[in-house]
Amino acid sequence: MAEDGPLLNFFPDPPPFFKHFTTENLARLKEAESAVSSGDDAAHEDLSTGPKLSPEQILALPTELRYLIPPPPPSNDESFHVFGEPAKSSGNNNFTQTLEFISKTLGAQFVLSDWNYTQLYPSAASPSVEASSTAHSTDANIDRQQYLNRFNRSILLEYLSLLGILTLDPKSEHKDKKLKHILTLVCNMHALINEYRPHQARETLIGIMEEQVRRKKAEIEGIKAIEGKVVGVLDGFGMAVNSETEVENRDDAKNVSQKDAEEDKRKEAQRHLWDVVDDILAH
């Protein structure tokens, strides 16, 4: 690595306007908002976020204070760019985009021309069975499993019919119609299966939470087992201390009895000596 080369950062520097987020500027912005709330423009006040400045009042503020006011959140239908890609607050309909890409690709490769996705199950926006809307079903009352079974049986029947057509005439025009119908049925099954994603997410979260509860319970049981072992060790220490105390007490009592016996022997010897002295002096 060159010693005189430029020093490169692993991460880019923050935007330069972060320097304007100071305590002094925040206090100045609060003063400006307070002036608005106490003036004639108090109608812009929001109880949840405080007084709001009108666009004209925001433009009248100094540059360092305008940076402290966040822009309003985009609406559900308003588009904005994230990493160069258009996005919406309500989310992008990737399923529709995927089907449009498939349709264009099949037409460009001269495989299936003029194929468009048709929704074959009811939805909240279109209660009919045959619907041309690409919106997914949001009605929780429809029996998705029943429609999936129907589509599955229809695909099998259409596939057998397609095999019969190819057996008789591989270049028949009815072949493309069958292929388009099979592709439409498969895409409808795919759309219905995608509607189980929220249920899958909930079940996944439930499984994760149950695993966390199981792990916590196992930790608690382990702590209780360790607690029992510690209590057993402490009880063993207590029993050992008590036994040592009893031994010491027995030793002390034994020593006292030995001293008493020795004292009695000494007194008995002295008494016998005095008796001998009395006998000698009596003669």
From TrEMBL:
It comes from the Eukaryota. It is found in: Nucleus. Component of the Mediator complex, a coactivator involved in the regulated transcription of nearly all RNA polymerase II-dependent genes. Mediator functions as a bridge to convey information from gene-specific regulatory proteins to the basal RNA polymerase II transcription machinery. Mediator is recruited to promoters by direct interactions with regulatory proteins and serves as a scaffold for the assembly of a functional preinitiation complex with RNA polymerase II and the general transcription factors. Component of the Mediator complex. It comes from Epicoccum nigrum (Soil fungus). Pfam families: Med7. Keywords: Activator, Nucleus, Transcription, Transcription regulation. This is Mediator of RNA polymerase II transcription subunit 7. The lineage of its organism: Eukaryota, Fungi, Dikarya, Ascomycota, Pezizomycotina. Signal peptide: none annotated. Belongs to the Mediator complex subunit 7 family. One of its GO terms (cellular component) is core mediator complex. The keyword Nucleus applies.
